[in-house]
From TrEMBL:
InterPro entries per the UniProt record, alphabetical: LY6_UPA_recep-like, Snake_toxin-like_sf, SPACA4/Bouncer
Main location: membrane
Gene name in the database record: LOC106588217
Signal peptide stretch: 1-20
Similarity annotation: Belongs to the SPACA4/bouncer family.
Domain of life: Eukaryota
Name this polypeptide is given: Sperm acrosome membrane-associated protein 4
Keyword set includes Glycoprotein: yes
Keywords associated with the record: Cell membrane, Disulfide bond, Glycoprotein, GPI-anchor, Lipoprotein, Membrane, Signal
Amino acid sequence: MNRIILSIFAVGLCFSVGQALQCFKCDICILNLFQTKVTCNAEEQCFSGVGKAGKVMEINTKGCLNRNNCNKVTETTFSSMSNTTVYSVNKTCCSSDLCNAAPGLPRMSILHLALATTFMTKVLV
């Protein structure tokens, strides 16, 4: 009888551990170089946030976010040594492991590659 109870407990523990959502996290993502992986709480989902600071510089952020705050625009304050900037961030959520991954790097077309090769050949020769 004890083995049955222990087996049920072990299976339940495996399912509860398997439910944890893994997400990428970076407070200010620059080329997605400094992002880490985090485990969200039960009431959280992965999110990607995009905003503009001073209507010029794009700010990206990622992490875990409470489901009640998903798919909303929020005001965020970014402080540096010289000034404080307030910007709006649109936070979009998703609910599968690492779903807030970085988009792929822009791909060069064959035409761009041929032009770059031609230019470099003329410069180096």
